[in-house]
Write a structure and sequence with these properties.
alpha/beta
C-alpha cells in the first residue's frame, strides 16, 4: 500500500506490518461496522490490535478510512508524532487499546465481550488480531478456555500465523481453539476473498477464530 511507504525510520518492524495488511484491509473495508463518525458510538464494532509491533499497516488502513490524516504518516515514530511504534488509544482516533506488550489483546477482547453482554449491547462485534507467537503466553489460553464455554458469539479472533511461535500446536493452531468450543477457519492470509469468507462465516453460539497463514519471510 502506498500509504505505508510514507512511514520511515529504524523501528518500522516492516515484516510484522506487512503480514497483517490484507487481514486489516478486509476487516476495515468489508466487515467492521465502525467509521470515523461512529468511533464513539456504543453500538460500534470494536477492533483490538494485540499484535502491536509494527503498526504501520494499521496506521495506513486507518488513514485510508479517514480515522487519521495521511499527513500524520510521515511523522511516524518521531518524538512529537501521535503515531508511535506501538498504538496508543489516547492519541490515535479509532484505536481501542494501547498495545505492544504481546499476549494482552485476546484477554482484553474477552473482557470487552463480557462487558458488552453485561450492558445488554448485542449489536457490537468484538474483533482482535493476534500473532501466532502470542499463543506462547499463558493468558491467551485462559481467555480461549473461558470464551468458548461462555458462548461469546460476538467475539472474533484473527491469528496471523507465520510459524514464529516457540511451541507450536500439533494439528495446527485452529485445533487449540476448536478444543475449547470455538468455531474455526484456516485460510491463506494473502487471499482477501478467502479472508472475507472466513470472517463472515456464521458461528451461532460460539466465538470464531480465523487463522491466517502468511509466508515466514515477509511476516
Amino acid at each position: 500500500m502506498a500509504l505505508m511507504a510514507l512511514m520511515t525510520g529504524d523501528e518500522k518492524h516492516g515484516p510484522a506490518a506487512t503480514s497483517t495488511l490484507d487481514a486489516l484491509w478486509v476487516l476495515y473495508d468489508r466487515v467492521l461496522r465502525v467509521t470515523p463518525e461512529t468511533a464513539g458510538s456504543p453500538d460500534r464494532d470494536r477492533f483490538l490490535l494485540s499484535k502491536g509491533h509494527g503498526p504501520m499497516a494499521y496506521y495506513a488502513v486507518l488513514a485510508a478510512k479517514g480515522f487519521i490524516g495521511e499527513e500524520a504518516l510521515t511523522g511516524f515514530g518521531s518524538y512529537d508524532s501521535p503515531l508511535g511504534h506501538h498504538p496508543d488509544r489516547v492519541l490515535v482516533p479509532g484505536v481501542e487499546i494501547g498495545s505492544g506488550s504481546l499476549g494482552h489483546g485476546l484477554p482484553l477482547a474477552v473482557g470487552t465481550a463480557l462487558g458488552l453482554r453485561a450492558q445488554g449491547l448485542d449489536a457490537p462485534r468484538v474483533w482482535v488480531l493476534i500473532g501466532d507467537a502470542e499463543l506462547d503466553e499463558g493468558s491467551n489460553h485462559e481467555a480461549i478456555a473461558f470464551a468458548g464455554p461462555a458462548g461469546f458469539d460476538r467475539l472474533h479472533t484473527v491469528v496471523i500465523d507465520n510459524g514464529s511461535a516457540t511451541h507450536g500446536w500439533p494439528g495446527g493452531i485452529a485445533s487449540r481453539f476448536a478444543a475449547a468450543g470455538w468455531s474455526t477457519a484456516t485460510v491463506d492470509g494473502r487471499d482477501r476473498q478467502a479472508l472475507h469468507s472466513a470472517f463472515t462465516a456464521p458461528h451461532p453460539g460460539r466465538p470464531h477464530a480465523v487463522v491466517a497463514r502468511v509466508e515466514p519471510e515477509t511476516a
